[in-house]
Automatic annotation (TrEMBL):
Residues 1-323 are annotated as: A. Coiled coil: none annotated. Residues 26-178 form the Histidine kinase/HSP90-like ATPase domain. Molecular chaperone. Has ATPase activity. The keyword Iron-sulfur does not apply. This is Chaperone protein HtpG. Its main location: cytoplasm. Belongs to the heat shock protein 90 family. It is found in: Cytoplasm. It comes from the Bacteria. It comes from Streptomyces alfalfae.
Length: 538
């Protein structure tokens, strides 16, 4: 087939442009991205061989070859490879959701390396250092290969080639070294060795250059925590999460006995933009005895902890385990429960040892975690133990334990009100009597709050009570005196007859400065929930 020239998809083109004009100062990371992709491809290749005897593969590895004269650097793997359609689909486009939005923000903040860090640029990062890239690949099981070539200017060529070796090789034609601009001589063996050691040491296949192997290949989750540096953990986190920022916390666990597994989990420092999208990528990587089996295994985590990243390595699962089986497997369910428990316990620990980190965590992921309160089978106490809420007591959110601790003599309930904003709730007439009494009120403004408060009755033996509900038993002086009742009777009758939409008009002393307020029935909907149902057309 002749050479075809194709255009990068619009978003891919924008990202490329950012790469070519390299807004990210650490250009070394292009090599980490290539090795990471090669490692993924080798994982898939190894698994294919385990599942199908005829595809058995050995000597899986990543080779780096540098040619200082030609100024080329080649990274080669004998992994799963790509078909022609895959090359066009995977390399020519960016399918990730939210790409357009991220790119827009990136463009507005040209100086911000942080932002691009969040994004994870993958393969395109090669254009930070190369002015021409040639990718040659042949997919396992196919007879012909594909050559892809681009100088990063918006178009690329693809052509079918007859004699490609299995796997993928990516040859970069390097731009001239210019250390001012963060461009090193990437054909220099010492530099390459340094980058591989630094970013890719844990990769489980040998990364070789000439006759030497550059990485130690040790599975990080199998090594004792004391032997692994933070930097190694962070690199591993980047590899599994495609998030460039450092994780907030690292959780390691090991279960021995009849069903053995090891897990290395990470709490990200920032919520991904698609945290609340149904189709977003999430889940853990599943390994069986050091062999990568599945990415994005949602089955390993309950939905409300879907932001946790990492690896589970189970000893006793079949290498042929499929997603369908995973959903029903008893061991997997057991692991999920244990991981969930451990994650919540770790967050609780974090509250004690690093309040700032905990606050960051809760700000980013609190609304997602609270979704767990909607599921009757989840441990609500454990979730509420790590929750915090805005409150009338101060600017900082409070935990329920602290709230209960502060309750004055005579208060026996956790009072809350739901609404759209803090200001809206604070200015609500419902609030007056509580202010007057000095009772603290939780200000619940996340959408999920509307729903969980309907089902969760208490925490640590103390009941929740909405202040927007009918009879809030603040104290006996809520009762109007008989004289007052008599004096207001005609007005009340008139109001009751005039206001059709209101069920009942009552005399109250709960207000101190507003003339009137709307309350719900004790078993009615809270005003905000009512509004939400209305908005949904119910
Ligand atoms: P990501 O790794 O986050 O998916 P990349 O931009 O790094 O994004 O890579 C895009 C896709 O191209 C990969 O998901 C993979 O399917 C494919 N790919 C890249 N490099 C290789 C390779 N060496 N072998 C096989 N497939 C590859
Ligand atoms: Mg990648």
């Amino acid at each position: 087939m002749s050479t075809e020239t194709l255009e990068f998809q619009a978003e891919a083109r924008q990202l490329l442009e950012l790469m070519v004009h390299s807004i990210y100062s650490n250009k070394d990371i292009f090599l980490r991205e290539l090795i990471s992709n090669a490692s993924d491809a080798l994982d898939k290749r190894r698994l294919a061989g385990l599942q199908d005897e005829s595809l058995k593969a050995d000597d899986l590895r990543i080779e780096i070859e540098a040619d200082p004269e030609e100024r080329t650097l080649t990274v080669r793997d004998n992994g799963i490879g790509m078909s022609r359609d895959e090359v066009v689909g995977l390399i020519g486009t960016i399918a990730r959701s939210g790409t357009a939005e991220t790119l827009r923000r990136l463009k507005e903040n040209k100086e911000s390396a942080e932002l691009i860090g969040q994004f994870g640029v993958g393969f395109y990062s090669v254009f930070m250092v190369a002015d021409k890239v040639t990718l040659l690949t042949r997919k396992t099981g196919e007879t012909t290969g594909v050559r892809w070539e681009s100088d990063g200017d918006g178009t690329y060529t693809v052509e079918t080639v007859e004699d490609a070796p299995e796997g993928t090789s990516i040859r970069l034609h390097l731009r001239p070294a210019d250390q001012e601009d963060g461009l090193y001589d990437y054909t220099d063996a010492a530099k390459i060795r340094e980058i591989v050691k630094r970013y890719s040491d844990f990769i489980s296949f040998p990364v070789t250059m000439g006759d030497s192997t550059l990485n130690s290949m040790k599975a990080l989750w199998a090594r004792p925590r004391s032997e692994v540096s933070d930097e190694e953990y962070h690199e591993f986190y980047r590899h599994v999460s495609h998030d460039w920022s450092e994780p907030l916390d690292i959780i390691q666990m090991r279960a021995e006995g009849t069903f053995e597994y090891e897990a290395l989990l990470f709490l990200p420092a920032r919520a991904p933009h698609d945290l609340y999208q149904r189709d977003a990528r999430h889940g853990l990587q599943l390994y069986v005895k050091r062999v990568f089996i599945l990415d994005d295994s949602r089955e390993l985590l309950p939905d409300h902890l879907r932001f946790v990243k990492g690896v589970v390595d189970a000893a006793d699962l079949s290498l042929n385990i499929s997603r369908e089986i995973l959903q029903q497997d008893r061991h997997i369910q057991l692991i999920r429960r244990r991981l969930a428990k451990k994650i919540l316990a770790s967050i609780k620990e974090l509250m004690g040892k690093d309040a700032d980190k905990y606050r960051t965590f809760w700000r980013e992921f609190g609304p997602a975690v609270k979704e767990g309160l909607l599921d009757p089978s989840e441990d609500h106490k454990a979730i509420l133990d790590i929750a915090s809420f805005a409150s009338t007591a101060g600017e900082e959110p409070t935990t329920l334990a602290d709230y209960i601790e502060r309750m004055p003599e005579g208060q026996d309930k956790i009072y809350f009100m739901t609404g759209d904003t803090r200001a809206q709730i604070e200015n609500s007439p419902h609030m007056e009597a509580f202010k007057a009494k000095g009772y603290e009120v939780l200000l619940l403004t996340d959408r999920v709050d509307e729903i969980w408060v309907e089902g969760v009755r208490e925490h640590a033996g103390t009941e929740f009570r909405s202040i927007a509900r009918g009879e809030v038993d603040l104290s006996s002086d809520e009762e109007a005196s008989p004289e007052q009742a008599e004096a207001y009777a005609p007005v009340l009758t008139w109001l009751n007859e005039t206001l059709d939409d209101v069920k009942d008009v009552r005399l109250t002393t709960r207000l101190t400065s507003s003339p009137a307020c709307l309350v719900s029935d004790d078993d009615g909907l809270t005003p905000a929930l009512e509004k939400m149902y209305k908005a949904m057309g119910q």
